[in-house]
Design goal:
The chain is of the alpha/beta class. The chain folds into three domains: 6-50 and 150-318, Rossmann fold (3-Layer(aba) Sandwich), CATH 3.40.50.1100; 53-144, Rossmann fold (3-Layer(aba) Sandwich); 323-400, ACT domain (Alpha-Beta Plaits). It has 17 helices and 14 strands. A four-stranded parallel sheet has the order 5-4-3-6, with helices on both faces. Helix 9 links the parallel strand 7 and strand 8.
Length: 401
Amino acid sequence: MTTVSFDDIQAAAARISGQVERTPTRMSRTLSAITGAEVWVKFENLQFTAAFKERGALNKLLKLSPAERRRGVIAASAGNHAQGLAYHASRLGVPAVIVMPRGTPTIKAEHTRAHGAEVVIEGETFDEANAHALAIREQRDLVYVHAFNDPDVIAGQGTIALEMLTDAPDLQVLPVPIGGGGLIAGIATAAKTLKPDIRILGVEAAMYPSFTARMRGLTPHVGGQTIAEGIAVKQVGDVSYAIARPLIEDVLLVDEPFIERAVALYANVEKTVAEGAGAAALAALLSYPNQFRGQRTGCVLCGGNIDTRLLASVLNRELVREQRIVSLKIVGDDRPGLLAAVSQVIGDNGGNIIEVAHNRLALDVPAKGAEFDIMIETRDAQHTQEIIDALRERGYPPRAA
């Protein structure tokens, strides 16, 4: 089985130096307070294409022969590998074709085209897009650049760990997102060489536990709509799995609410944008606090390419979870002034009314009554409860809508 050595990663670091961002690794006091760990964040969303994938793609491109560069490259990608390969191929004058599955966020497809690549949309999943890319490779004699199952790509991704342990040499544990496994294979190889006692934990979206299933000798049951589409891979790579498996302690599965919360925390606390896959490491700290409490933990924020509409939805959903946006249902007499009175109570107690809907036809409401669904914005859950108590005291007892 092909492997990747520490020397390969060091060589990749020298090769790509000055052509990708040397992104910062910084300690977050607020995230540390929230999670109970000492959280250090590696901001790979500051790469030009907003994701770590540039490293592996560029390392692969720089190792091509002149003849291979003239032929051009092809890849299948849900987005970040596509953008990284397209951008650096354009810089180096290498023609590039990218096959992207349907459902890829629009922003990723648009950026890939903007970097000069030919984009082909085909397949419902990464694996179907990948099969189509392999067929095009044969037809057009292109060089195939796998998103994760390639030793040169893996070596490029491993350069992240070199930088992290230079900036934060006392790190004790690294939770690393797993899709196809290229990132964790590279990081684990470098980190374990530099610091053999460091713990490496994989992180998978619960809907796509491909690495976990393979570890346990099970058939993976994958599928569903995850916001972490960058790690929604049905089958981990053979090369990446073989490299990573002996070096990692375990794999943690994270559910969607924790991924959403991690995206929101990056935006609200660090004032930075993370896509679902990019926030997976932080989601693991939120899901499994006992695994990290008191530990110096390095989280790779590996990508920031999230659709703006999805980001807005995630942030609003977090407000609902925190009970800062609440819908209240109030049933009362259908008489003039009732809504004004209810609004007065809410306003006097510092609440902001976002939306009001009347319902006079609900059969569980008296014929001379009316039902109001009132969406309000508050400071926090305690403030929401204060408003509910005030409404109840004035004779307008609400219930959650």
